[in-house]
Specification:
269 residues, six-stranded mixed beta sheet, alpha+beta
């Protein structure tokens, strides 16, 4: 069965009030993030428990818009939009699959509303470390790259992310009405944001990585934090981020990104 068929069958069951199709196509190490949860869902047991709350809830079937599958070795990323319906504001969706023994299994899912704003108040549980926290292995490599680009981003310079992106990169966030496909289109989008986004502190919350061969899924919670004149926190915006990397000529490059707001409030229309 193809990846698109797996996804569509799980969606069809979901619309009919049966959420467990998602669990059946998922790996034991599935991770999932969406506006409903304050921290990532880790593992199939927790994922099944999360899905249970949706059992019996029927939904208006939604059209799958602009599905795209990007494949690198035994890793495939399916990204698409789920069109708005009378009971849904519409979604951006990322599903990452790893292949093992000829079978595709979903290992990471990221859902976010097509258009949404930050909540007025949200209580996000975060780990607090008494000493500096270091990252090792592939997670350390990717976080070094990601942090370098993010330091430039918070100073109004988005081009650090272009430099670490593959030519085939795809991108979705709260302000993109449609997935952005390719480095040229993403460069044009970032040019419109250059010199306009500023904040003081990058807060990466509990980043994690899933690795398959020369590709990896990096995901984390993130606070873009503004300080007041006295150095106290004046404003925080809570985000989820998924970055899918592959090695190109020995260097890690992003080939898919999705950003969404933690407990984002959907904007219809």
């Amino acid at each position: 069965m193809t990846i698109l068929e797996l996804e569509k069958r799980a969606l069809d069951r979901w619309y009919k009030g049966d959420p467990y199709g998602w669990a059946e196509i998922s790996d034991t190490n599935i991770t999932a993030i969406n506006p409903d949860v304050l921290k990532p869902i880790i593992g199939l047991e927790d994922y099944r428990a999360y899905l249970q709350r949706f059992e019996g809830i029927q939904r208006t079937p939604a059209e799958m818009l602009h599905p795209l599958i990007q494949t690198h070795g035994d890793v495939a990323v399916l990204s698409y939009h789920e069109a708005p319906t009378p009971d849904s504001a519409g979604w951006n969706v990322t599903s990452v699959y790893f292949q093992s023994g000829g079978t595709w299994k979903r290992v990471h899912a990221h859902g976010g509303y097509l258009h949404h704003r930050a909540p007025d108040v949200v209580d996000v549980p975060v780990p607090v470390y008494a000493a500096g926290y270091g990252y090792e292995g592939v997670l350390g490599e990717l976080m070094a790259i990601e942090t370098g680009a993010m330091i430039r981003w918070r100073k109004g310079d988005p081009w650090g992310f272009i430099e670490i992106s593959d030519s085939s990169v795809t991108y979705m966030d709260t302000g993109t009405p449609q997935r952005i496909d390719g480095i040229e289109a993403l460069s044009a989008e970032y040019a419109s944001r250059a010199g306009k986004i500023f904040y003081d502190v990058n807060e990466f919350i509990d980043p994690k990585v899933q690795v398959c061969g020369d590709s990896a899924v990096l995901f984390y919670r993130f606070f873009s934090t503004v300080l007041d004149a006295g150095g106290s926190i004046a404003e925080r915006t809570p985000w989820y981020c998924t970055e899918v990397f592959t090695r190109v000529n020995g260097q890690w490059k992003i080939f898919h990104t999705q950003w969404s707001l933690i407990r984002g409030v959907p904007i219809k229309g």
